[in-house]
Structure formats: structure tokens, C-alpha cells
Amino acid sequence: MKINLDSPAEEVRIEIIPLIDVIFCILTFFILAAVGLTRQSAIGVDLPTASTGTPQMREMLIVSIDPIGQVYVEQQPVTQDQLLGVILNYQQSSPDGLMVLYASREARYEEVVGVIDLLRSVGGDRVALATLPESAADTEVPGLIPDPQRHPLRP
Fold it and tell me: Which residue in 129, 138, 150, 152 could disulfide with 100, CB within 3.0 to 4.6 Å?
């Protein structure tokens, strides 16, 4: 193999266009991954409809029961003991606040009544059941908690 030492050395260049393409691909990947990780998942609660009730427009603590009976407070799963502690803390921090129960249609009656009893034992008459108005029943997406500013109705 013959090496030509007399030839002028080629100038080394860094091609910037392919580098920019790779950086944009990596940036796009991380942006899409970050968006996917930050989405809040809603608890699958299929609310019943009601033709009567009044919308409540004050500070609320949202308690949900899903179809399998798991209890959530502000979309965080809790046990019965933790639920009692959260309710007591809420009552002390917001004496005029409302506790809204989002119970799925498929939730067992016994579980719903147990949570209502617990809420009423601590909060008295500040407990409301969330329902969908009859007119909104067809327009809502099943399995998603509706906007609490529009739908908590006090029976």
C-alpha cells in the first residue's frame, strides 16, 4: 500500500445540516415523551343523570368511587383510613367547602352508602352527589369526570 505524503491534506469539515437534523429529531422525541408523561388520566366514573338539582359554585373536595369500588380523593387512590384523615383536614382548612361524591353507576350501593356516611359524619350537610343533567347525558364522554364547575348538583 502506497501512501502519498506529498499531497496536500484535505480540509476537515463538520457537516452542520445532518447534525441539525439529528438534533431536531431528538428534540421532537423528548417533547412528545414529555407531553405523554404529563397528561392526567381521569378516573373512569360513569355518572347517573338527574333532572333536578342546583349547580354548586364553591370550593369542593372531589371524592370518587370507580366501578370496582376503589375510592379516590382528587384522583389519588385512598383507603378508608386515609379518606377519613383527608376529610378531617379538608374540614379544618375549608369550613365552608363542599364535598362532592362522584360515584359510578356500576359502583356497589353498599360502598357508596359507606362513603356518604363517612362524609356526612365529618362534613354534616356539606355533602353533594355529582350527577349529569339530562340534557348533557348524551354529550358527555363516558368514563370521564365532567367539569366540576358545571356539574356538581345538590339533590
Answer: 152
